[in-house]
Amino acid sequence: MKGPLTGLVVFDLTRILAGPHCTQILGDLGAEVIKIERPDVGDDTRNFAPPYLPLPDGEDSEESAYFAGTNRNKRSMTLNLSDPEGQAIAKRLVAKADILAENFKTGTLAKYGLGYDDLKTEFPRLIYCSVTGFGHTGPYAARPAYDALIQAMGGVMSLTGEPAGEPMKVGVSIADLMSGMYAAVAILAAVRHQQLTGEGQHLDISMLDAHVAWLANQGMNYLATNENPERLGNQHPNIVPYQVMPASDGYFVLSVGNDPTFERFCKVAGCENLLDDDRFKTAVERVRNREAVTEALNDITRVKPLAWWIENLEKEKIGCGPINELSDVFDDPQVKAREMVIEMDHPATGGRPAKLIASPIKMSGTPVSYRQSPPTLGQHTEELLGEYLGMDSASVEELRSRGVV
Question: In terms of domains, do 199 and 261 share one?
């Protein structure tokens, strides 16, 4: 099945999470992604384990679940970029590509003659996307970066956690994931420009830039007031109630975005008398009187069980939901209906299909496709060198014997 990016070739020098997340998005949309990995070592996340993908008997395979999560729809070949012959092969492959994606530390690929300035004249159509911690300019450009570091420096940790507790990171690697997503958006825009003009360009995506960009309303709250927002735990800075609420047997999330919804909530909860209190009557006053409103509503919601609240609030179109563990998420009928889990045959799992999280992109005319399971290390080296550079098996084996591939 053809996707919207069918025919585009991505020379993928990314590893770990931010870059591979970007190139998996492109692969799901139909692009041919050639993943370059270090001989004998591969992408670092091949060793980010356990857990591993399971074998039919439930024992571990040798493939990490982490790696599998961001590397489907790619073919893997090994190539030693520190070797001059490996660099020459890389340039021959770049000549066949529309896009080069990399997330090495700033300046690293220039040491191998594979920086943007090294390639742009010879390959003027090439879209060269760099994802780094701090970008290619500015005083931090040479620094290495990791997700938790960017969450700390980018401000989100100062916003996350209980008011009296320590700053907390988000429970997934959101700095990596968002910079990868911004990189994919930038590449798609550059592809359009390339198609219109025949010109390539350098895309300089910084994890810190992306992190600052998605501070969103909290960032704007600071810019409007010059005051650092306080940590609010599970509460919303601009809306009350929009938070975790106690029931008699657990917790749920309540999202009341405007005054008519709050009036419906009070009717369901049997507390319409609160609407006579100026502290509760309007959205602005509920925020100003956050502590009193929260305390009063918590006393009301903790009287009845979780199921009662979900059923009766949903009847009145009031935003609410259970706080699911991952076992609940993947068993949820909506998640199942949207087919957010797929199974793919994998060469390392002994015939047991690998379960993977699906793409969230739903397109009626050119849907995403799942063509290649996450590859084993160097699985396609011989295949790709033959297909793209015309090398025979003996030539590839000779390169392998010398550590070039």
Answer: no
